[in-house]
Amino acid sequence: MASWHRFDLVDSSYAMGLLAHRTPAWTEPYVAILDQLIERHTGWWSAADWLTQFGPDPDRADYPDAFRGLIPPQLWGDYDVPGWTANGTEPWGVQMDPVAADGMLFYKGFFLVLLGIRSMIADDDRWNEPFDMIRDGDNTFTWTHSGIAEHLTQQWLAAPIGCH
Fold first, then answer.
1. Can you state the percent helix, strand and coil of the chain, rounding each to 5?
2. pLDDT tens, residue by residue, 53-90
3. Collapsing DSSP states into helix, strand and coil, what is residue 94?
């Protein structure tokens, strides 16, 4: 579940925040590293699962027995393994923008952590200027750091029991 490309980006950012507080004289290189991690998170590979896993997992009836602890016994063979993003599931339909999507809470949440760590130690507000996400022709979406946070806030306000 945590083996997707974006987890390496986000998990690597934690050290940058800690190092910047411990050695503030080196803030500029830490910000440069965070900028590269963020840049990679704006690309197609950061959301590859959302952009390729549509509807129910076609292999759900053939999961290995090792997955049995992850799926309620009464739903075995008719339930997606945790980590299957299922873009396009009704009633929402296919939503190619992983930030605007009704699902993908973890994607935008972890991305906000990455952006927030950079914002915490940087002297500028680079990522609060519009930037493109995914950059796959028609599937290019423009966001800002605060725009993502506001969108997630509105999703929570619209569905207090959970925006997933």
1. 55, 10, 35
2. 999 999 999 999 999 999 999 999 999 998 899 999 98
3. coil
Structure pTM? 0.89
Q: Could you write out the DSSP letters of every residue in 108-160?
A: HHHHHHHHHHHHHH-SS-GGGS-EEEEEETTEEEEE-HHHHHHHHHHHHHH-T
Q: Each residue of 139-154: pLDDT tens digit?
A: 999 999 999 999 999 9
**Closest Cα partner for 144 from 103, 110, 99, 106?**
99
Whether the CB-CB separation of 66 and 42 falls below 8 Å is answered with no
The C-alpha atoms of residue 127 and residue 14 are separated, in whole angstroms, by 18
Opening angle at CA 156, ends 154 and 159, nearest 5: 110
In this structure, are residues 144 and 128 in contact, taking their beta carbons and an 8 Å threshold? yes
